[in-house]
Amino acid sequence: MKKGLLLVILVLMIVMTGSFFLGDRYTVQRSLVVKAPVGNLIERIGNLENQNLWDPWKGDDPILRFQYGKQRSGPGAGVTWVSPSSGKGSLRILESRGPGLITARLDMGEKGTALVSWKLVTVPGGVKVTLTYDGNAGPLPVDKYRALIMDLILGPPLERALQGLSTPGAKAVGP
């Protein structure tokens, strides 16, 4: 019994000590070539109400309730949400530069923050959309270990977001 307890304490000490050497930052990035005009993609991404047409998180949590600010697109546009299972969060567009870059700040409260960017580049066959999350998982030891596996956690939803963005039925509404 004592040996088992000592082993558990030793493992916990190693895990805690190891976390001091880990960073809390992560980057997850996915790309997809979408057959759609750049302007249509900008409207799907940059108008926050349109994101509900293709964003996978709404489908993952149908109880999500969104509240939009007065401004729905462009720098300063924002949305907040709440759900019993997903918690509270917010997204605010920081920059919308030309037809090729939109950046936003994602705040998931205790789950951390991220800078989200959509980069659009015209390529043969369509528009290459690159979705990137640069984030901070949080300061706790468990957060630092979570940062190590964020690609596994966020990669599949980012891929679904890009697939949803390329869905012909995800038609954007006007500004």
Describe this structure in words.
The protein has 175 residues and is of the alpha+beta class. The protein has a single domain (23-165), classed as START domain (Alpha-D-Glucose-1,6-Bisphosphate, Chain A, domain 4, 2-Layer Sandwich). It is 32% helix and 34% strand. It is built from five helices and seven strands, in the order αβααββββββαα. The chain has a seven-stranded antiparallel beta sheet. A hairpin with a 5-residue loop joins β5 and β6 (113-123). The longest helix has 18 residues, at 2-19. The model is unreliable at 170-175 (pLDDT under 50).
Spans of at least 5 consecutive residues with low confidence? 170-175
Number of contiguous helices: 5
CATH superfamily: START domain
Mean pLDDT: 84
Large-scale geometry? elongated
Strand-residue proportion: 25-35%
Summarize the structure.
The protein is of the alpha+beta class.
Show the helix and strand layout:
Blueprint: H1 2-19, E1 25-34, H2 38-46, H3 56-60, E2 65-68, E3 78-83, E4 87-97, E5 101-107, E6 113-123, E7 126-136, H4 141-148, H5 150-165
Antiparallel strand pairs: 1-7, 2-3, 3-4, 4-5, 5-6, 6-7
Describe the structure using short key phrases:
175 residues; alpha+beta; Alpha-D-Glucose-1,6-Bisphosphate, Chain A, domain 4; 7-stranded antiparallel sheet; elongated
